[in-house]
Design goal:
homodimer; 433 residues; Dihydrodipicolinate Reductase, domain 2; Alpha-Beta Plaits; 3 domains; 15 helices; 26% strand
């Protein structure tokens, strides 16, 4: 059978992993693809850097047109990060008749509707398994394996960097800044880890999952998100005292009022599978009717798991499965009606863990409890450890609430933070019921 | 678009779940299948039993020929248990030009080569996601999502009945017979649970996974298997004392000498994901290169998860994905060369937990240790609790070995069981390293 000619755009860490698989696993890939898959072009601006991979002569080029203009190339793995030129290049590839495979969740979360509509118009496909949870085949699971189900809940740890940082803080007791520095030195965190630790990355992935699982038309910026950068070692200790671990949880939950969505550091009961996810791993817990609970766990990022997902997508594309899946998914179009409405964030209920830094004097708890009460938030438990004689002037006060709406919690916190007895550095986390 | 006309053969528990989904989830299924999926015939010998599902008139029949002879029916869900007439009916369906969806792992494990070869000759497909681990999409994961990987290991809990029994024994301290009776009363175990508890069911599923993941040509009867029926509450306590839980583990592991396969009650270190699988759940831990560890957890059997898997397969079949996957999988043919050799079971190494019932007198440990030594099996630890004054004459002696081959362990046990000081009821379990 004629080989399928494919190209790779973006020859960084993931690109190198993908190229290595395509070059070294030819037989396996040919078997699954039904014909040889021949990598005929790699496009990158940097032609000189040593990626530790010996390429056949002439494979690497900085000329994108050599891919766009080659009609024999039908599938292209595009591994350029960020929004531009990634978006323009993807549009050009689609218009040149190529099916595209991507790992760029930011691009999909931002420009998904435009890109998917364009691909549909042109009869092309975009495969994106690698964009969410790396080595965990969650996109295929939802879009192909759980198709008979009404998905009811998705609870997920989607950012390995945050999870690594939280686990280190919990296990070693080291503080946030030191742990971020460690994560950077180990390659688990970028030089600027903002998108990982502030919940952006997880919210973008959650937006993709919400489209897939619920047919929601949600923009990632509209997903309420809190990051882990306010979480302190003290919170880890309090959480443990209460029987919980802290996880950056991305949640989508279908209730009669609509689809609840949020990303937040969350207290998860110890001993449950999500609480036990360690290090840079990702995990996703899906509840569907009739399948029940299904739990997936694996590496969420990095060269190896991501290239595994990319090459599986490439095989799906070459063999023709992806065209079918893409056609039937009706994914992500602003021109179609959403199947579920997203619930107004302020009305979403939940339990909260609150830590205030307060003056160590009588009456403070009463003031704070008063404000919570005024906002109809009732208190489930309080931790305020006795301070040593001559101890500090400012002490932590931890309050676990019963269920309260996001809006009430935000309003109450605003009021509490204006109290004279409350000092900066309030921490708010969700509590998984 | 023309609806896809489908039929269901076997209207038992699973069949009822499948019919309910097809009748009640028409819109969802049509969306994913790219066209309406119309259930036009259900065949069962029992036309009278109330399944709690209102069927359109004329749907249920006992006439198989009404399906075989209807050329408009292109896909058939066949949910008949056992080997015959399941095998003959499946061959007839294939010969009548139908694609088949099955949940019958015993049939595939026994007659897979014949059925798959015949389907290939006829250009038809057989889908079987529901045959292994119910609601966990492990067949799709291995055959579509991890296709770039060299799978290195599969460790799995594939029999929910056994896992339920082991968990109950561990948590409640009740004995094996009472727990089996409880499992039967709750519907987790058949009236005759032999195939579940003796490892047959798990070995059949492991054979299917080994074909898929490794391209091995293995007959399930050749997979060494031990059941859980010899495991006592005392073993649960000893295991816990040593830091382990007992699980019926199905293992496939690729080593330079070949593919190691076995099903055995196994001590799994507490705190690891497999050890924490509770009740009737299944779990599968796959290690692949380059994906690393991926872990799947979900309900392994029962109407709901199984019908979720069956309907997903039906959608895959109707939409055309299954034809592609089936064609490229080259699954299970005796006429093709195996890609890996199965390692001679006797030469497979492993650590063992051994419990002997021995006379409570000096010298017994020395005798047993002597025989183990003669078979080059060294002892890692021994548990022999002091018996109370005037205690029992026969006491348990627990030995954990270092790595020994399956053959040496079997030989040594045979010799030890012939000792006068050793009474019947020896327990042998594997220890997961």
């Amino acid at each position: 059978m004629q080989p399928a000619k494919v190209a790779l755009i973006g020859f960084g860490t993931i690109g190198t992993g993908v190229a290595r698989l395509l070059l070294k696993r030819r037989d396996r890939i040919a078997r699954h693809a039904g014909r040889p898959v021949e990598l005929v072009r790699i496009v990158d601006l940097d032609l000189d850097r040593d990626r530790g991979l010996k390429l056949p002569k002439g494979l690497l080029t900085d000329d994108l047109d050599s891919v766009l203009g080659d009609a024999e190339i039908t599938a292209v793995v595009q591994l350029i990060g960020g929004l531009e030129p990634a978006r323009s290049i993807m549009l050009k590839l689609l218009e040149a008749g190529k099916d595209v495979i991507t790992a760029n969740k930011a691009l999909l979360a931002e420009h998904g509707p435009e890109l998917f509509d364009r691909a549909r118009q042109l009869g092309r496909s975009i495969a994106f398994e690698a964009s969410v949870a790396g080595g965990i085949p969650i996109i295929a699971a939802i879009s192909e394996c759980l198709t008979a189900n009404q998905i009811e809940e998705v609870h997920a740890i989607l950012n390995g960097t945050s999870n690594f940082i939280l686990c280190e803080m919990e296990e070693k007791g080291s503080d946030y800044a030191a742990t971020v520095a460690l994560a950077q030195s180990l390659g688990y965190a970028e030089a600027d880890p903002a998108m990982d630790v502030d919940g952006t990355d997880a919210a973008q992935k959650l937006a993709i999952l919400a489209h897939l699982a619920f047919g929601a038309r949600v923009r990632w910026r509209e997903i309420p998100r809190m990051g882990i950068d306010t979480v302190g070692v003290a919170d880890m200790r309090f959480a443990r005292e209460l029987g919980y671990s802290v996880k950056l949880l991305a949640v989508a939950r279908l209730v009669p009022e609509g689809l609840e969505l949020h990303v937040a550091p969350t207290l998860v009961r110890r001993g449950t599978p999500l609480a036990e996810v360690r290090g840079a791993y990702n995990a996703i817990r899906v509840v569907g009717d009739p399948v029940g609970r299904v739990f997936f766990h694996g590496l969420g990022a990095g060269q190896n798991p991501t290239s595994s997902a990319v090459v599986a997508d490439l095989i799906d594309t070459v063999v023709g499965r992806m065209a079918i899946t893409f056609r039937t998914l009706e994914l992500w179009s602003d021109s179609r009606e959403a199947r579920v409405r997203v619930r107004e964030p302020a009305s979403v209920p939940g339990r909260y863990y609150l830590r205030f830094n307060v003056d160590d004097r009588p009456g403070v708890l009463a003031e704070i409890a008063g404000i919570l009460g005024k906002h109809h938030i009732s208190i489930a438990s309080v931790i305020q450890h006795e301070t040593a004689e001559g101890g500090e002037d400012v002490v932590p006060l931890v309050i676990m609430t019963h269920s309260a709406t996001e809006g009430a919690a935000a309003d109450a916190l605003g009021a509490i933070e204006r109290l004279a007895c409350v000092h900066p550095g309030t921490v708010r986390m969700r509590v998984r019921e």
